[in-house]
Amino acid sequence: MYSEDERYMRRCFELASHGLGNTRTNPLVGSVIVHKGRIIGEGYHHEYGGPHAEVNAIRSVKDKSLLSESTIYINLEPCSHFGKTPPCSTLILNHRIPRAVISNSDPFPSVSGKGIAALQTAGLDVSVGVLENEGAFLNRRFLTFHEKKRPYIILKWAETADGFIDIIRQDGDPVGTNWITDEVARTLVHKWRSEESGLMVGTNTIIADNPKLNVRRWTGNSPLRIAFDRNGRVPESSNILDGSQDTLVFTCMQERYSGRINSVLIDHDFQLNEILEELYSQKILSILVEGGQQLHNAFIKSGLWDEARVFKGKMMFSQGVKAPEILNPPSEVIHFKGSELMIYHRENHLH
Description:
The protein is of the alpha/beta class. The protein is 26% helix and 24% strand.
């Protein structure tokens, strides 16, 4: 059984998750206000630059006089600095809310412990660490970005029952995807795309599949497309160079791109950590890596990944491009009609 504090904190998590894909570099935050065992206000952080969860929750309370007898639940420490919005810790104090329950402290340097300290100094009853691990998992992108100084990396691929991700391509073979998964799984991938800051593929995947790398089967924002074109092999007619959405190309070639396509010059012997440093500097919070084999293997070999989502279909290729291998057992397996989804977590990197 969950305690009363845990039950309301779970509601904060649920509310916070609605902001996924819209908060950019900000965390996912939900807030619930409870008066004598009854929820009188709720809110969450909807989008980057918009009001924080605590603001929306307090605004939703019809009778503000009840706030002085209420408890506010927040899954992340309230801010104590002026950023895009005024400090939420000050707002809580101004409304004389006597108790605050918080899941996680905020690693962002401008906040980190200061919001909690401000409430405690003012005499509030403050509880910290309620469902801390679950709160950290919810904000694993945000926490990884600030603690490891790089984006949160999610690897994704589909493999056949006999362990291949593609057939062997010959010159002259048609360009396009050899589908392994069903329509439901493909729709789910578009939902995933809408939830991340960036979407990355390697050169061979662009040439073989000519992907659009946008969100079509789901509502939401299309992420930044991140591609590699070290030697200018990517055809100018490729969908990824169509200028329809923001695109970043890592390349050794000078002055090949324009419009919504930006390039970063790299050396021929570049390392993945250098790529991630650049993406961190551009405030890319998370990346979904969709292929191909060489890129996935590079991430796995370097240990620079956090999560992997692997579809295993029922069809057989007999021969082809071998799927990457993760030696750890999956933490979760979800069964679909035409495939199963295995979800891996590299380590318990959150506290």
